[in-house]
Write a structure and sequence with these properties.
Blueprint (H helix, E strand, L loop, with lengths): L23 H4 L4 E6 L3 E8 L8 E3 L3 E7 L3 E5 L4 E4 L12 E4 L2 E8 L5 E8 L2
Antiparallel strand pairs: 1-2, 2-9, 3-8, 4-7, 4-9, 5-6, 5-8
Length: 126
Amino acid sequence: MSDSPFHQPAPAAGHVTWPETLDALVAAPEHHTLLFENDSVRVLDTRIGDADCTPVHAHRWPAALYVVSWSHFVRYDVNGDVVLDSRTAPALQNPPSAFWSEPLPPHSLQNVGAQPLRIISVEVKT
């Protein structure tokens, strides 16, 4: 189980696979920038401006996330159903500055706050 209030269960345990076209860098490149990558980790800089919404994308590896700037958000699944609304999640009223996240299935994220949301993620390849 994840320590993160952002956690959304991935499919069955083990290797997580979604089509390469849903990778965050491929499906939502305007919101995800590659900072570093090797055989062990991939470091992404995620930026979602106020009132902006990402295209559907996925994160196939678990990651340590560092919140650079916070803004409330709504996460949607591929059907457009709300999976998480940070405004109504008690654990997100005072979010941690760093936390762990399991792989995230295909989703989109809308910034519903008044400032940009920026997160640096260190994805641990398995």
